[in-house]
Design a protein that fits this description.
Helix content is 50%, strand content 20%. The protein has 32 helices and 30 strands. The model is unreliable at 67-73 (pLDDT under 50).
Length: 824
C-alpha cells in the first residue's frame, strides 16, 4: 500500500471524485480517500506518476506521502493550521458584514438612522452595499476559486454550492441595482423603490460569512479529534542526557543511536526504547498501555519512549530509536487506521458522489417552479439559493472518518491499537471470543501457588531447605520456587553432593542428611507418604498445578505447588464479556485436565484442549459459523488462528509474529483490554450511525423546507437561515463525535480512587524487643507517603504501606538513623 497527500478537497463529493478517478486506473486494486486527513491509500502496481496524474486531472493536487526519517516525533504534523486562517477570514468578514447589515437592514427593521447622503440617495445606498459585498467576497474568494474550478472539472463540491448561491444573489442584486438606477433616471420612483426591495447583497455576504463561521467551528472541532495522538506526541522529550566519553551530555533525541547509554532522573521521560543497565525505579507507562499503576523496573527490564520515570535514577542502553520506538509505532498505527475507510462509510460515499449535482438540479427546478407559480424573480431565486446553501455534503463525508480518528486515538491512549478502520468496525460486531490459555488467560510464567508443610517443621525452615536445593537447578519450576523464597528472604543453606536426576528430581546433602525434591513418585520411593499427602497432591494436580514434594533425613517435610497462574484481571474480564452477551471459548494445546481447571477458575464453560496450531485454525473456522469471531492470543502458535479469525487480537506482551498477524493489538498484558476494545468499537459504531442519521435527516428535511414546502403554513426559510443551518451541520456531527473522548473517563477516575497501595518489605538487623520495633514503626509512619508500617522484631521484617511513591533510600535512612541496619 502507498500513501498520498491530496490537496484541494473540501467535502465528501471531492473525496468521492478522487476515489473514482484513481480506481479507474488499470493497475489499482483498491483506493481509499480520507477527507479528514486529506490522504489517500492505494493498493496495486500502478505507477505513482499515473496515480498523481489521475488526481490532478480530477481537479486536485497529489503527492507521495514521504516516510518520516527523523528520530523525533513530528509534533507539527497534526497541528491545527486551518482554524487560525479561518478565524482571520471570519473576523474580517464580520467587520464589513456589520456595516453592511446596518446600512441595508438597520434603518428598516430597527429604525436606526442613516447618514443623510444615503437616506436620500438610494442608488448610493445600493452601491455601498455592492462595494461591501465585493469586499466580503474577496475575503472569502476561496469558495469561488474552489467552487467554480470544481464546476469546470465537472466535479461540483460544497464550495460550488456556496459559490453558486452567493453569486446568484450578488448577480441578481447587481441587476436590480442597475434596473433601479435606470428607473430613477426615467423618473419612475415607484418602480425604483420596488427594485430597492429586490437587493440581496446582504444575503450573499451573510451566506459567505456564516459558512466561514461553520468552517471555522468545524476545523476547530476536527482539530480536537487528534487530541489523543497529540498528547502522546507531547510525551516524547526533545532532549536526552547521554554518556559520552565518560561524562553526561545533553543531546537532541534525534542524535541518539542504538547502543548509546542514556540516563533518566526522577520526573523525566524516557527518550527512546531501551533496557536498564543500572538502577531501579517505578515507571508510569499509562501513555502506552493505559495502565495507571506505576510499574517497577530494575536492571534487565525494558523501558519505552514517552514513559515517565517516577522515582529512581536509572541508566539505560538504547535498543530502538526513531520510527522503531514503541511510541512511533503506536502513532503510525493510529494514523494508518484513521487513513483507512470503514465499510459503514460506503453508503455515505455513494450518496456523496451524486449529492452536489442533484442539489444544483433541485435548486434550478425550485426556482423554475416558483416562477411558473407566478412569483417574482427575486422571490423565486431566493428559494433556489436557500436550497443551494442549506445542503451539506460535508456532514455526510465527515460522519465516519472523524469517529474513526477519535476512536483510534482514544484506543491508543488506553493501550488498544486498531490497525484499520475495518477492524475497528468489525470488533463491535463480535459474537464469540476465543481465548488462548497460556500467556493470554494465564501469565505464561510458572509461580508458586500453594505451600503445604509436613509435621514438626516450620514454614521458614521448610522454605530454606527447598530454596537451597532448587537454587542449584535450571528447571523453570525451580526458578519459580526460588523467586518465591527470595521474596520471603529465605536463607540459602550449604548443600553438598548435589545431583539432578533427569525426569525425577533433585538430591543433595545438608548437615550430613539427604535432601530430596521432586515428583510424588520420586519422593514416594524415598519415604512413605500417607493418604493425606497423596490426597493433597491429587487435589493440586486436578486444579492444574504441579506438586513438588520434599524429603529430608528420610522423612517427608512438605510440598510446594507450582502453576501457570491466571492473570489478575482474567476472571473479571471474562465475566464482563459474558455480561455483554458474548460467547467465550478457551482454545489450548494443553491437556484437558489443566485446561478445564483454568477455565473453571475464570468462568469459561466451553473448552477445546489438546489442539495443535493447525488444528486451532480448523476449530476457528467451525466456530465462525456462529457469527463474527474474535481470537485473542500471544504466541507464535497462535498466528494461524489469529489470521483465520474474523478479528485477530494480540496481547502486546506477545511475540512479534502474533502481533503482525493480528488486526488489533493490546498493549496491556491483560484481558480487560478485550472488553474495552469491544465496548469502544460498539460506541464508535453507535456514534457513526448517529452522525449518518443526522446528516441524512438534515438534508432530507432541510432541502424541501428551503424549497418552500412549508410556505403554505407560513414558514419561509431565507438564504441566510439556510446558510446558518449549513454552517452548523458539520460542526454538530464533529462535536457529537468528540463525545467518544469521554470513553473510559469514569473507569480512569475509579481506578485512581481504588488504586492499590504499594507495599515494600525490609529485613532489619538489630531489633531485639517490642521497644525496638515500636521505634522503627514510629519513624517509618512519620515519613510523608507512608500510610502504615507493620514492624516485627521477631521476624526482623518491616512491611511499609505507601499511598504514594517514596524512595527506598529515604526509608532506609530513617531506619538506620535509629541505629538499626537494613539487610535487604
Amino acid at each position: 500500500m502507498r500513501n498520498y497527500n491530496i490537496g484541494g478537497m473540501n467535502c465528501a463529493a471531492c473525496s468521492a471524485r478522487v476515489e473514482r478517478a484513481v480506481s479507474k486506473l488499470e493497475g489499482v486494486e483498491s483506493c481509499s480517500v480520507n477527507l479528514l486527513t486529506n490522504t489517500m491509500i492505494v493498493s496495486g502496481c500502478e505507477a505513482d506518476e499515473n496515480i498523481i496524474k489521475a488526481v490532478v486531472d480530477a481537479g486536485y493536487t497529489a503527492s507521495v506521502k514521504g516516510e518520516k526519517k527523523s528520530s523525533v516525533v513530528d509534533r507539527d504534523v497534526l497541528a491545527d493550521k486551518e482554524t487560525p486562517l479561518l478565524l482571520k477570514r471570519l473576523v474580517s468578514s464580520l467587520v464589513f458584514l456589520a456595516i453592511l447589515m446596518y446600512i441595508s437592514m438597520g434603518h428598516m427593521m430597527w429604525g436606526w438612522t442613516l447618514p443623510r447622503v444615503f437616506a436620500e440617495n438610494h442608488v448610493g445606498l445600493g452601491l455601498i452595499q455592492l462595494l461591501l459585498t465585493v469586499i466580503i467576497m474577496v475575503i472569502n474568494q476561496k469558495f469561488f476559486i474552489s467552487g467554480f474550478k470544481a464546476l469546470w472539472n465537472r466535479a461540483p463540491n460544497m464550495d460550488s454550492l456556496v459559490a453558486l448561491g452567493a453569486s446568484a444573489a450578488f448577480v441578481y442584486s447587481t441587476y436590480a441595482l442597475y434596473a433601479m438606477t435606470s428607473a430613477l433616471s426615467e423618473g419612475d420612483s415607484i418602480t425604483a423603490m420596488g427594485y430597492m426591495h429586490e437587493l440581496y447583497f446582504e444575503s450573499a455576504a451573510m451566506i459567505l460569512t456564516l459558512i466561514t463561521l461553520g468552517k471555522m467551528l468545524e476545523a476547530k472541532s476536527k482539530g480536537r479529534t487528534t487530541d489523543a495522538i497529540r498528547s502522546l506526541m507531547k510525551l516524547a522529550p526533545e532532549n536526552a542526557t547521554v554518556i559520552r566519553d565518560g561524562r553526561e551530555v545533553i543531546v537532541s533525541v534525534s542524535d541518539i543511536t542504538v547502543g548509546d547509554t542514556f540516563v533518566v532522573r526522577p520526573g523525566e521521560s524516557i527518550p527512546v526504547d531501551g533496557v536498564i543497565i543500572e538502577g531501579e525505579s517505578a515507571l508510569d507507562e499509562s501513555a502506552l498501555t493505559g495502565e495507571f499503576i506505576p510499574v517497577d523496573k530494575s536492571v534487565g527490564d525494558k523501558v519505552s519512549s514517552a514513559t515517565l520515570n517516577y522515582s529512581g535514577f536509572i541508566k539505560c542502553r538504547a535498543t530502538s530509536v526513531g520510527e522503531d520506538t514503541a511510541l512511533s509505532k503506536i502513532i503510525k498505527m493510529v494514523e494508518g487506521a484513521s487513513a483507512t475507510k470503514a465499510p459503514i462509510a460506503k453508503i455515505a460515499d455513494r450518496v456523496s458522489g451524486v449529492f452536489v449535482p442533484v442539489v444544483i438540479a433541485v435548486a434550478i427546478v425550485t426556482t423554475a417552479v416558483w416562477l411558473v407559480l407566478g412569483e417574482g424573480v427575486g422571490y423565486s431565486l431566493a428559494r433556489g439559493i436557500s436550497v443551494l446553501v442549506i445542503s451539506c455534503p460535508c456532514a455526510l463525508g465527515l460522519a465516519t472518518p472523524v469517529a474513526i480518528m477519535v476512536a483510534s486515538g482514544v484506543g491508543a491512549k488506553r493501550g488498544i491499537l486498531f490497525k484499520t478502520a475495518e477492524s475497528l468496525e468489525a470488533t463491535g460486531k463480535v459474537k464469540t471470543v476465543v481465548l488462548d490459555k497460556t500467556g493470554t488467560v494465564t501469565s505464561g510464567k510458572p509461580c508458586v501457588t500453594d505451600i503445604v508443610t509436613g509435621e514438626n517443621i516450620s514454614e521458614k525452615d521448610f522454605l530454606e531447605l527447598a530454596y537451597s536445593i532448587e537454587k542449584r537447578s535450571e528447571h523453570p519450576l525451580a526458578h519459580a520456587i526460588c523467586d518465591y523464597c527470595e521474596n520471603r528472604f529465605a536463607n540459602e543453606l550449604i548443600i553438598d553432593s548435589f545431583k539432578s536426576l533427569s525426569g525425577r528430581g533433585l538430591v543433595g546433602r545438608y548437615n550430613g542428611k539427604e535432601l530430596y525434591g521432586g515428583s510424588f513418585k520420586f519422593i514416594g520411593d524415598i519415604t512413605e507418604l500417607d493418604s493425606e499427602v497423596r490426597e493433597s497432591a491429587e487435589t493440586l494436580s486436578c486444579e492444574g498445578k504441579t506438586p513438588i514434594l520434599f524429603a529430608y533425613g528420610g522423612s517427608y517435610i512438605g510440598m510446594i505447588a507450582v502453576a501457570d497462574t491466571v492473570k489478575e484481571d482474567s476472571a473479571e474480564a471474562i465475566r464482563i464479556l459474558r455480561d455483554m452477551g458474548l460467547g467465550v471459548v478457551m482454545l489450548t494445546g494443553d491437556n484437558e485436565n489443566t485446561a478445564k481447571a483454568v477455565a473453571s477458575s475464570v468462568g469459561i464453560d466451553k473448552v477445546v484442549a489438546g489442539v495443535l496450531p493447525d488444528g486451532k485454525e480448523s476449530v476457528i473456522r467451525q466456530l465462525k459459523e456462529d457469527g463474527v469471531l474474535l481470537m485473542v492470543g500471544d504466541g507464535i502458535n497462535d498466528a494461524p488462528a489469529l489470521t483465520s479469525a474474523d478479528i485477530g487480537m494480540a496481547i502486546g506482551a506477545g511475540t512479534d509474529i502474533a502481533i503482525d498477524a493480528a488486526d488489533v493489538v493490546l498493549m496491556k498484558n491483560g484481558l480487560m483490554g478485550v472488553a474495552d476494545a469491544i465496548k469502544l468499537s460498539r460506541k464508535t459504531l453507535s456514534n457513526i450511525r448517529q452522525n449518518l442519521f443526522w446528516a441524512f435527516i438534515y438534508n432530507t428535511i432541510g432541502m424541501p423546507v428551503a424549497a418552500g414546502a412549508l410556505i403554505p403554513f407560513g414558514i419561509t426559510l431565507s438564504p441566510m437561515l439556510g446558510a446558518a443551518a449549513m454552517s452548523l451541520s458539520s460542526f454538530c456531527v464533529v462535536t457529537n463525535t468528540l463525545r467518544l473522548n469521554l470513553f473510559g473517563k469514569e473507569e480512569h477516575i475509579k481506578v485512581q480512587k481504588e488504586i492499590k497501595k504499594m507495599k515494600k518489605t525490609f529485613r532489619i538487623e538489630g531489633m531485639m524487643c517490642t521497644h525496638c520495633s515500636g521505634r522503627v514503626k514510629k519513624v517509618l509512619e512519620a515519613i510523608d507517603g507512608v500510610s502504615a508500617a507493620d514492624v516485627s522484631h521477631e521476624s526482623g521484617l518491616a512491611v511499609v504501606t505507601l499511598d504514594k511513591e517514596v524512595a527506598d533510600t529515604v526509608i532506609i535512612a530513617s531506619i538506620e538513623n535509629e541505629g538499626y541496619t537494613v539487610i535487604k
